[in-house]
Amino acid sequence: MTLDVRNLDWLRKLKIEGVPDFGQRMYEVVADMKNGVQTIEQQGNFSCNGNPSPPPAPDGLRIVPHQTGVQFAIKHDGEFYQGIQYEIDATSAGVTHTYDVGSSRNGVLPVGNLSATYQVRARYPNGPSSPAFRLSGLVSGGGGSSALLPSEGAGTTRRGQPPGFGGPFRSANGAPPVRGQ
Description:
alpha+beta; Immunoglobulin-like; 2 domains; 4-stranded antiparallel sheet; 3-stranded antiparallel sheet; 2 helices
């Protein structure tokens, strides 16, 4: 979503005696500023209208027991911008703890042998969270294997891609994702 500039077409038609192209030049100045703001919005996941949209919800969550707790793998094949972060909620006996796991879609939560239900949400910094993907059933931590689950990537990288190979956004067609709102 880009900055809304009112009366831009009116500005283009302005005429001042002695400067016949005044309106056109002013229009170009304002249009260039508007395009610059749009670039900043895309690169920084901002909304200059004050309504940032959440990224699409994650597609899946895998939780398996690990020697120190549980290991997670977040599946997220949606189209989104860089700066995406993930939050995993663990709920046990009516108490929920939220773990901010950053941009990585793989890791270990140090919950010990806790039996809990889990869900994952995605968000951009300073924006609202996406709807949660809920994992059905309880998972008990502790024990299990120390072998790692296959990599789901991090940030805008894809499954199995090394870090640093993602761009400013991830999309199926190479064009920036369409923002909500």
